[in-house]
Amino acid sequence: MSTPTVDRAVAPFDPRDHVAKKPGAVVRGLRWVREHIIGIAAVLALFYLFLPIAIVVIFSFNKPVGRQNVAWNEFSLDAWTNICRDPTICESVGVSLQIAFVATIIATLLGTLISFALVRHRFRGRTATNLLIFLPMATPEVVLGASLLALFLNLGAPLGFGTILIAHVMFCISFVVVTVKARLAGLDPRLEQAAMDLYADERSTFRYVTLPLVLPGIISAGLLAFSLSFDDFIITNFNNGTLVTFPLYVWGAAQRGIPPQVNVIGSLMFFGALAIVVIAQIVGAARRKK
Amino acid sequence: MPAVVPSAATAHGSDEATVRRSRRSTPYLLLAPGLGWLAVFFVVPLFASLATSLQVPLVEGDPDQGYTQGFAVQNYVNAITEYWPQFLKSFLYAGIATLLALCIAYPLAYFIAFHAGKWRNIMLILVVAPFFCSFLIRTYAWKTILADQSPVTQFLNALHLLPDDRILNTPLAVITGIAYNFLPFMTLPLYAALERIDFRLIEAGGDLYGSAWTTFRKVTFPLSLPGVVAGTLLTFIPAVGDFINAQLLGSVKDKMIGNVIDSQFRIVRDYPMASALSFLLMAATLTIVFLYIRRAGTDDLV
């Protein structure tokens, strides 16, 4: 703003000066876009992320004409008030919840033990252990499911709850190890040394110092394992026998048309998980303030 | 606490040898149950699968009679000659989808790391939240969004951007679906890497007369490379083996190798062929992963 005063005195009709002082709407718009390009891209990415979710929620209020719930017809609360009209939906959700619950407990326990060994101990075979943890994550799910099925077929094992559970624990362990390991590695070892210096024995150091500090990592690992198990389709589809989990129900229902109740359950899962995460954030923030 | 001191001292003194011996076995005791599970239900199945892939039919030309153990390397030759186009397509689709996810996730992660301020945690939750709604349900929603009569398709058609006048049942739909479904696996590692960058380094790039683009190319992007490597791997690996997007959003021509393995195993019931295919897929994926890690120079991924 300092030069124009001088310039204007010399050349009052310089058109460039005019543009600089009063840019047109288009130029101003383009400049705004240029300055906020990252923000715009981020908002577009969020839009992309939420577009399908919006469709799922909206169509849970639809009253479909035929069996296919793909074209909007009429607003209805029917699906929300009659979630279990087709009892197989709710049975399948129950099966998925049971499997996810048990698989989460086993995988979180086994994975946490491995993380402690990896972070807190020196031992021979560390590289091999790391490789064994990494490989299941680097193996496509079809391969995991198909190989397990090959084993179960060779053994003549009956497919069902047990085989699904075995498969889910297997692919969840690595994710638990990675999550808990990250938390454990970020822990200041001096905190535990301080406890020992204050004459706490190993057990009470672990009970009152280590465990509370690692717990957030263990909880997020458990939540991750739960959602991986609940949502798994590919591996489960190989090892389920005749037992139907929720993703398998959705897959099967697709042939004859997905009822809006499936959208209701999808919406409930979305809002439920959102509520849990938001509450955890608020509680965490409140605790940090204290 | 004087009472504790002597007892602690004696415990340390008398049992030192036993403590040290138990110390040495502790890591193995911690590892045993988890690694045992992985050994029995991950490693053994891989060998079972390897054995199956070499089996031969009991009665030549009639697979319904069952299979017997053999050493039919021919199964692998058949698998490659018959299904190499699907292999190629899988790696192509997964590769393009990974690049697409990178292009979408990078600005998002960058914004959250540097510009979101107190909205940071909320935006991270928003990135993950859609993925609590089941994978299959989300993919079906894409089927609705990309359908021939949908506003999205009609809009793009009006701009004459679609070569086939449609999105659903084309490779484009499969790639869009894959990129969407694995987006958080890309965004979160990118965010973690960007967040760790000292923002003063980026400012220094500007102070030294680097343009925004040069600063990004020479400073920001190289520093975020660990996140790029982790994110692309976490997206690419599940994408290669995925068959749900191809099944729901693609046409018969867009079948990926996952579709072939699935149908060989569960519908055709040609177990040797299915096992040979899944072994080839695993070998190819691992080769690419290890080459990529070595090329990128980050071994600390594991």
Brief summary of the model shown:
Chain A is an all-alpha fold and 290 residues long. Chain A has helices at 3-10, 15-21, 25-35, 37-59, 78-81, 87-120, 126-138, 141-155, 161-185, 189-197, 202-231, 234-239, 246-256, 260-289. Chain B has 302 residues and is mainly alpha-helical.
Going by CATH, the homologous superfamily of the largest domain in chain B would be MetI-like
What is the molecular shape of chain A?
A: globular
Individual helix count of chain B = 14
Residue ranges of chain B: pLDDT <50 for 5 or more in a row? 1-14
Number of helices of chain A: 14
How far apart are the termini of chain B? 44 Å
Q: For the report, how would you describe the main beta sheet of chain A? A: none
The number of E-state strands of chain A comes to 0
How many structural domains can be distinguished in the coordinates of chain A?
2
Question: Average pLDDT value of chain A?
Answer: 85
Low-confidence stretches of chain A: 1-12
Determine the structural class of chain A based on helices, strands and strand pairing: mainly alpha
In percent, how helical is the residue content of chain B? over 70%
Using the coordinates above, name the CATH class of the largest domain in chain A.
Mainly Alpha
Order of helices and strands of chain B: HHEEHHHHHHHHHHHH
* Backbone CA Rg of chain B: 26 Å
The shape of chain B is globular
- Rg of chain A over CA atoms, rounded to whole Å, is 28 Å
Percentage of residues in DSSP E strands of chain B = under 5%
